[in-house]
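TEACHING EXERCISE
Course module: macromolecular assemblies
Task: Read the component lines below, then compare them to the predicted structure of the full complex.
Student: A.B.
Group: 4
Components provided:
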Amino acid sequence: MKSKITISRQSLYILVLSVFLLLFVFIFAFGFLIPEGKEYRLKRVELKKENLELKKYEDFRDRVLEQFNELKSENKHIISAFDRSFDPKRFVKVHKSHFSSLTLEKSVQVEDEGKFSVYEVNTSSHIGSPTSFYDFLDAVNKSDWIVGVNFPIHFKREGEMIRSSFTIKVYGVSKDSNSTTSSTLQE
Amino acid sequence: MKYSYIKPRKKSLFTPEMQLVAVFFGITLFMLLSTYLFLLYKDYRFSQDKIDIINAREETIEEIKLIESKILFIQDQEALSESIFTKNTVLKDSMTNMFDLVPQRITLSEAQLLEDGLILYGITPSKDVYNFMLQAPLRSIFHRTYSSFYPAENGWLRFMSTNFVDKEEETIPVVQEDETNDEDEEEEVEYEE
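Instructor-supplied answer key:
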């Protein structure tokens, strides 16, 4: 007796379609989706690493910036003194109280000291006693400019007064150097 | 000729079973494609984010370098100003000590402070007063001391004292009363009118 398996045409269509779609799903999943998923995971890990590294750099930058701001506020007077251009009239006005008379000659730029420009100014003055000169040396350290009193210093008695002549060196930020202080003050 | 009493229904490929299968696979395919597109989009975003992070990192490194150079510059300024202020203070102390060194019996008329020496002009009642009260302390401070005398109008002696510190030892003549130096050198010249 012969058993006859009868599959309707409709069922056959469904079967073929199912097989075809199933194959497509498998090929798509293994051929595209899974490799892309792997790449996604790798890139995510990599990005996390990069983020961590960036965070480290940013933290370090913040620490350096904090140090810089502290240093800047601690040395505010020095920074502004280096940046300020020398004004002989103002210098005489500020320090005249230590002398009976104070005259400044024209400033001459001498050789730069590294990043700093140096101006030399010859001065002549009259003082009542050496104490006035000591007071001047104290005051010059707190003045608006970075000023160093240089040798030779000459004192000569003239009646009741002492005539003194000496050279001062005024230090400023050299134009050639990176004018850091200027930018820092602007920030 | 009719073989059936009912109207023949139109046969379609999209039977309910086929529709069910199509819907099922449709949903599956939609999910797969949407997942794939999502992954593609995320990959693209990650690449972009990575580029942004690398740029931000480079900017941060540049910023760090700039801040560090600024710190160095301020430190240079601080060091230079400190050395200048110290020099001024040392100069003041040296001068205080120098003027304290001169006894009341000797009157100075002129003083020249040089980088490596000191020249004094003045008047002394006698050579002995000068030698014991001024020259002795000067000799203990300076390496080379030269003195010359010539008579003044009132019978006293005018003197000129030239004192030097050897450069390899010290550049600034820090005058300190307590200092002593065994390698003193003395030369005395007397001018007679």
